Structures are given as structure tokens and as C-alpha cells.
UniProtKB/TrEMBL annotation:
Alphabetical keyword list: Acyltransferase, Transferase
The protein, known as: Anthocyanin 5-aromatic acyltransferase-like
One GO MF term attached to the UniProt entry: acyltransferase activity, transferring groups other than amino-acyl groups
Keyword rRNA processing on entry: no
SUPFAM superfamilies: CoA-dependent acyltransferases
Lineage of origin: Eukaryota, Viridiplantae, Streptophyta, Embryophyta, Tracheophyta
Organism of provenance: Panicum miliaceum
Organism domain of life: Eukaryota
Amino acid sequence: MSPVRTVDISYVAVPAKAARPPEDVKLNAMEAQWLVLPLLQYILFFEGEQLPPFDTVVQSLRSSLSATLAKFAPLAGKLVHLADTGDVAIRCSASSSDDGVRFVVAESEADVRRLAGDEEHDVQTFERLVPELDMSELPASLLAAQATRLEGGGVALGVTVHHAVADGRSLWRFVEAWAAACRGDTPPPMPPPCFDRLRVRLPGGEELARSVLRKYAPNLPVVTTPSILQEDRLRFIRWTFTLDSNHIKRLKRHIVRLGEAQGAPSCRPPSSFVAVAALAWTCFVRCRSVPADEDVFLFFFADVRGRLDPPAGAEYFGACLSGCLGMVPARELHGERALAAASAAVQGAIREMTEDPAGGWEFLRIPGAVPMDRLLNVSGSSSFRAYEAADFGWGRPRRTVPVRMNQDGQVELVRARDADGVQVTVSVLRRVHMDAFKAQFLDLLE
């Protein structure tokens, strides 16, 4: 672990001339659950000759963040508890001296080449390269950023966003807009982000959202994370694997061959997400002692913006996710055709979601319904443009890393720096499990 020293803290406000959204934007039921769940946190590491002096980087990031908030104004607000109705809402009005997005400037003796190059994460240093948001009591801020000067001429840009107001797709859309503003590019023509929570229509409307809050956050304005999700994440071992385009092609072909060998007629290649999720699930089960006749589980989220009736729209900015659960007996992931079995189970869970897109909206029921030691949680997506979107004018990040991984058995996916590949980050509690996972992962890719 390398120490990180805070140099300056300021607040970046929405430009005075920007259009102000309605003062209170109430969370819908799909988002209300996220109030008690951990934050979204990423670090972007930059290095190289294109990188300007650190003070210039900080100035560019601050000014472009302000310009970006003109369209993303709610992110400069706070989550508040409306005691008279029982709702939780995003409050967008300026009301105090710390109104705006907290922007931290820091420095560290940690070497950027080590942090951005090592496959195993320096978890404790990474945690200090992203700003914290206090979620324990409302009002709570929604967004914070941190720029850290690193040894070796590098910069770490840490971004933290409250998960109740953004999922991964929303986060990367915001980063892309911020990066474009920093480059000075004219943004491509697209609809502005939409924060209207009424776009997500669930039976029960506002009263359903209130019932979710009463169920999962009964002590508002105090917010408590469920005990089942309160693991000591600093003890986890985290490792990043990168699958290039050739790895992905071979993996898909292998799954097709296994499916055809099982008699599947004209088996189509799986998507990159399905193929990589199947690979990770198989490795997870094989590195643990699960009895052959016991079921094992894979959980992941599906973006349902375009699947709801009526659709929320691609421009919807929020957490618009439905949970998907795959299940197979452990023995099926130990045999020669394990990848095909895992792939089929993932595709089956996707089909169920397609038939009822909102069916998995209350995903917080899952932790109490399945044994967590036999559950792999896959978050993120192989479609998230984490490198392409984050070119702030200094080239793509040398590395992008998820910071907040909270479970023994969690996998985070983003599109790799090589745009045709997939970056896979794995979190486990025990070294022996990580060693076994790595061995299985590399073996199955051959």
C-alpha cells in the first residue's frame, strides 16, 4: 500500500446559465433498492508523452466537469429523504456552500506503471485513489471525482457515483460526455440525458417505491447496508484478466463445438458476454469444493431500458436493471462440456428476462434466496466502452479498474483496451481460490 495525500478539495457547480431540472426527482422502485447497496467506483490511469503537466490536467478536468454538469445537473445534487411522504428524491437546487460535485486533488508516491501494469490489484492503494461518498445517512451526495499525481509521470482519475442514480451504462455515458468536453470536441448529436423517473413504469408507481424503502431502508434518513453484503472488501484478492479478440473467437468456437457435440442443431455462437460469463462461472465452481449434486448459481443484471413497455429510452439516465439468475448442478461445470452447459444456462436466464423484462426488478430478494458461497455475481458488461469513452485528450487510459468489489465471488466486465476484447476483473477472499481460478481460466482458454 502506498500513502495518498490530499492536496485540495473543491466543489464543481452546475453553470449558472444551465437549465435547472425540477427541484425533487423521486426515485422509482427499481432504483430505491440501490440506496442500501455499495457505490460505483472506477479508476482511470493515464501516462505517456501526451499527458500535460498535472496542474494543467486538474484545471482541464475541473472546467470540463462544470461544462458537462450543464446537461447532467442532477448529479451535482443530493439524495434526500422526504419525511412527509416517505420518498427518497434527488434534490437539484443549490442550498449550501458545498453544493456541487466534490473534486479532490491528491498525490502519491505509488508508481503509475506498477498500478496500471500489475495483474493483481493493490487493493488498499486503489481504495485511496477514489473519493468516498458517505451513504450512511441522507442527504447524500451523488458524484465525486479525484485526480491524483503519481510517480512516473502518471495521473489517476477516480470517479465515484451513487448506484441509486446510475448504473454502469449511465456512468460511462457521463464519462464519455466529460471526456469530450475536456478534449474540446463538439458532442455528437444525441438526445440529452433524461432523469425523468416516470420513464420506468412499474405496477404500483410511487407507492411501490415507498414500500421498497420501508422494506430495505426502514430507518431513513439513516441507511444501512444489509449484513449479508457487509464483507471486508479490503481482504479480497483481485486480479485482472484480458481476453483479446482471438481469445474471444476461440472461446465462442469452442462453445459451439461443445453444443453441436451434445446434439444442438445449428448452434449459433454465443455473445461475448455469454461466452465470458460461462468461462468465469465454470472457473469459479471448479476452484471450490461444491458437492456434485448441489446447484450452483450465476447472477447478473440486464439493461432493460429498451425492453420495458413502454421503453424508458436509451437516453434514460439512472439504474434501469433487472436481475437474471442462472442455475445448474455443479457436476455439469466439471465435465468436458462444462462451457456449453454454462453458456446454455446464461442464455436461458436471458430468455426469461426477455419474456418478462421487469420480472427481476427486485433483485435484493436474491441474496436471501440462494447460498452466497455457491453464487458468482457478474457485474458490468463486455459492451461498456471504458477505454474508448475515457479519452480526455491524452489518449485512452493505460488501464481502467473497478474499485468497489464487495463479494467473495464477483466478476466485473468492461470492453478491453483492444476494443474487440474483454477485460475481466475477479474478486475472491482466499489466495488458494484465486490460484485455482487462474489455472482453470488459462487452461480453458487454450
